[in-house]
């Protein structure tokens, strides 16, 4: 017992002049799915949460390049986009979305991807391990949309379609 008290006193003396709490780095946005395992053709609920201390902007209709699906390769050591011409068919009704700090938005995905950027050409992704790549912008000045913004990307949790 005496040794513990002495150790605590020594640590207290050492920390008086030199111990500082770690400064918390700015948080990142979060994208995640509501579950980890899904049946084929089951709707996947996607949650996007702005954990930044500033507004972030999402352009879902700007060239279909804001949300991508990636599949883990057979060896399991890397991710491959499902072809560049394919995009996730996420149901979003707005050209531009703003996320205020701490704001959450929810999206549904029917497990289809668009082929050749044409809305009527949809195919199902199939079995496998996936993640979502979400692209967003910060520090926008709105004079020329994306040209005056900082572009960022984040990845969702991994999920499996059985």
Strand and helix layout:
Elements: H1 2-18, E1 30-33, E2 37-38, E3 44-49, E4 56-58, E5 67-72, E6 79-81, E7 86-90, E8 97-99, E9 104-115, E10 118-124, E11 128-138, E12 150-155, E13 159-161
Parallel strand pairs: 2-13
Antiparallel strand pairs: 1-3, 3-9, 4-8, 4-11, 5-6, 5-11, 7-9, 9-10, 11-12, 11-13
Keywords:
162 residues; five-stranded antiparallel beta sheet; elongated; mainly beta; 1 helix; single chain; eight-stranded mixed beta sheet
Structure, explained:
This protein has one helix at residues 2-18, and strands at 30-33, 37-38, 44-49, 56-58, 67-72, 79-81, 86-90, 97-99, 104-115, 118-124, 128-138, 150-155, 159-161. The strands form two sheets. Strands 2, 4, 5, 6, 8, 11, 12 and 13 form an eight-stranded mixed sheet that branches. Strands 1, 3, 7, 9 and 10 form a five-stranded antiparallel sheet that branches. With 162 residues, the protein is mainly beta. 17% of the residues are buried. β9 and β10 form a beta hairpin. It is elongated and about 40 Å long. The model is unreliable at 5-25 (pLDDT under 50).
């Amino acid at each position: 017992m005496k040794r513990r008290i002495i150790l605590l006193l020594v640590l207290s003396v050492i920390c008086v002049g030199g111990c500082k709490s770690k400064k918390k780095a700015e948080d990142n946005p979060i994208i995640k799915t509501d579950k980890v395992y899904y049946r084929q053709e089951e709707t996947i609920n996607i949650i996007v949460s702005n954990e930044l201390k500033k507004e972030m902007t999402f352009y879902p209709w700007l060239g279909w390049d804001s949300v991508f699906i990636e599949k883990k390769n057979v060896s399991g050591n890397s991710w491959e986009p499902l072809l560049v011409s394919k995009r996730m068919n996420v149901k979003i009704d707005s050209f531009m979305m703003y996320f205020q700090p701490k704001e959450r938005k929810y999206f549904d995905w029917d497990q289809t991807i668009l082929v050749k950027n044409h809305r009527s050409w949809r195919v199902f992704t199939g079995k496998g391990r996936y993640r979502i790549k979400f692209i967003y912008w910060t520090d926008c000045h709105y004079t020329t949309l994306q040209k005056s913004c900082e572009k960022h990307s984040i990845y969702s949790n991994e999920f499996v379609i059985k």
